[in-house]
Amino acid sequence: MKNYFLSLIALLFVSACSSIPATDQANGLAPTIILISIDGAHPSYLQRYPSPHLNALAQAGLVADALQPVFPSKTFPNHYSLVTGLHPENHGVIDNGMYDPEFDARFTMSDKEEVGNARWWGGEPIWVTAEQQGQVAATYFFPGSEAAIKGVRPSYWFPYDGDVSNRQRVETVLEWLQLPVAERPRIITLYFSDVDSMGHMHGPNSNQVRQAMQDIDAEIGYLVAGLTELGLLEQVDLLITSDHGMAEVDQTRHIVIDQALDPELAHYVRYSRELVSIFPKDGQKEVIYQQLKANLPPQARLLRKSEMPERFHFQNHRRIAPLHVLAEIDWILVRRSWLPDMIKAPTYREPRGSHGYDNEEPAMQALLIAHGPSFRTQTRIEQVRMVDLYQVMTEILGLKPAPHDGDPAVIPLLLRSE
Fold first, then answer.
1. Catalytic: which of 32, 75, 129, 394?
2. Interval 34-85: pLDDT, tens
3. CATH number at residue 226
4. Fewer CB near the last or first residue (10 Å), C or N of the chain?
5. Are residues 325 and 370 in the same domain?
6. Which of 331, 355, 62 minimizes the C-alpha distance to 195?
7. Is the pLDDT of residue 365 over 60?
8. Is 172 one of the annotated active-site residues of the chain?
9. Which residues contact 148 (CB under 8 A, 6 or more apart)?
10. What is the pLDDT of residue 28?
11. What is the span of the domain harbouring residue 313?
């Protein structure tokens, strides 16, 4: 049966890319991981949308019914939890946008200076673990990789540029694997944003997401065809993930959050469609809380920091605000200033997509496929957590892991025993 699936992979992939000169690198290749993130891909997309290359890898290797994201189910917290094995309260990247009361500074994904500032990035990402222990690491776009965390950068990295084509990203990965041994990375990250972007704009059930998933699947096919021609397909471990899923939302089901409180009483408010975080001015916490309690509808959950469910692991960091409003899935939180453009848009009543909700929601679950010499074959598992995968990568690479929140019982569930 295993040979059947390997043959299937070969048939699917060999025609997917141009010829790449064969090398002799396959002989004695040290353990190597390519960590791939397909941002916003829900595990159901494998069945719902054309993805023959991903499905071939899943059938031959290991696939999870769900990879549970950390809370909040946002892009930066989950990508960074994936590579550090820590919950956001332990690594400090608690949202895509943050306020730090100690620094009295704000962080947004679009602020390149702060994205590259190591003060925001706690914990130890896998590329730092590798570099500190004498291995070469390479990142082709990944949250945290633009900063010198613990004074260390990957040997190869790029500032994020969404205009770089997916094909160029894949070709660069293949080039890295052909470098001389001393320069060749052992841990490589690769990131694709298209599925998430189309999910936000058109909703997870759209033809646009279908096409984006098909396009990314073709890039995976190109990568595996390249690995095959280099003789590396069965020597390189592929760990294919997403950071979260996507929920379809109707924009008419919105809650105007800044009509439920007086924003002038807050020092800082982090607005998003799923989670609003509030730092009150001195002496105003209870006033804001009572305003929200009186004015919010039942589809918005009001939580003090101390009331966060324990399963969220979202209490013990100074960047976690004293007050939060969490939307019920399928509802969105909006500001008054957003309403005019939102309502007059021709697509106002068309489906959109959101994530950031309760991380136990089925729609928020992420994708996990693993294929390669270290992983179990023809295996399906129910669920693992985002924080469990860092330790799996250090085990494969023979590294001593930094402190993390992963469950060691997950390692034998994913890796071969021999």
1. 75
2. 999 999 999 999 999 999 999 999 999 999 999 999 999 999 999 999 999 9
3. 3.40.720.10
4. C
5. no
6. 355
7. yes
8. no
9. 118
10. 66
11. 254-350
